[in-house]
Fold:
Amino acid sequence: MVKRTKTLIKSQRDISKIPKLTRKDHFPCGDSMFLRVEPIKGEGNSMSFIGKMRHPVTQKQEEITLGKPTKDFTITKAKTKWLNIKETAKKQRTSINKINVSDRKQTLGYVTNLWLDTMQKSGKWTPNYYNDVKNKCHNIILPKLDPDRDIRDYQLGNGDALIEDALDAIWDESGANRYESERKCRGYLRRIFEVGIDKKWVNPQCNPVGKRNKDLIQEYSVKHYPHFSWEELEGFFKSLDLSGRYSPPQELLALQLIIITGQRCAVISTLQWDWIDYEKDHIEIPGWVEGLKRKTPESKKISHFLPLTPITKQILQRAEYYSDSKKYIFTNVSKNKNPHLDPWAPSRVMHKANNINKKDEKVKSHGWRSTLQSEGQNQFGQPLIMLKKQVGHIPDNKVDRAYDRSDYMPMRKKFMPEYEEALLDLGLRL
Structure:
């Protein structure tokens, strides 16, 4: 049952006077049309015009969303739309939803969800990536536009200014990550409108999502992950507390493995016992592991091999003592739902050491990848292509991947023990 209130919504001014609610409510607008108001945590109210009537044949109560109140979609326009739908439904003796189905399938919100569902079913996206894109669409992009509005209203020549205003707002709200946030959201919107073009709802020449503003690009400068130079390592290792007073042993051991192997946190935190081959002296990490960041189905078939060095084996033996899992090498020690170690845990250990070391640019665990590649060349004279293989890089180009099938394992099995011993000489403790 719709909760009846004494307040009758007659104008845009009446809508603006509605206070922030604590629970969903419906305000009558006359002629069986209502303004549905739902509170959004930390953002005020979400509003939509809805219409209600009984099916002319079955007499079952039906409800339809007409759109959100905006400067262009006023209560008067919503009322006109609703009365036309209701009259047509009565004449055709059919559902109000069938009358409006074509309109609803061309809304920005519908096309967005259509794109998300299609990509999810395609298998090209991992579950985590799908959830990330979905959250950005529903929580960042669509709230700045009207998801109930016809997608044609946003095409080039109609409402493209609204698209750019939304992207400008994303830029302004994103702080230090503004470039990446705006770039990703711009790309998502472009693909959403491509779906509309494919469905012939949008003119092929009228995709409203253009290239980034040059002024915005100039404001941004690429910042690589900070890393330690060879001269800075001794000071950092002195500040790195491996006693276990502040961090659990699983986190410390995972960080040690990251330092000496140059792997991403997401790879080390999800390592499994079954991937270790002591006969061949390597760890085989499947290409589908999310931390490897393989982007294509073909690249996800390419495993990443880590040589088993004496120090690596020593760390794994200690990890086995603390592991309470038959599957994961580093088990979860927090309230996180994942059975494996939180990927951010090694960076938190790094953060404590950074504070003691007082390095201006805080080095995160990802920075050890840069340290291995840069100092592997500078201090040991190793070729960059071999070092890239060690950290898990593969060529982006399909043709290059076809020709570059070597993993340089003999070279890496010789180099990595030398590199690890050098780190121990600089003060890394096990």
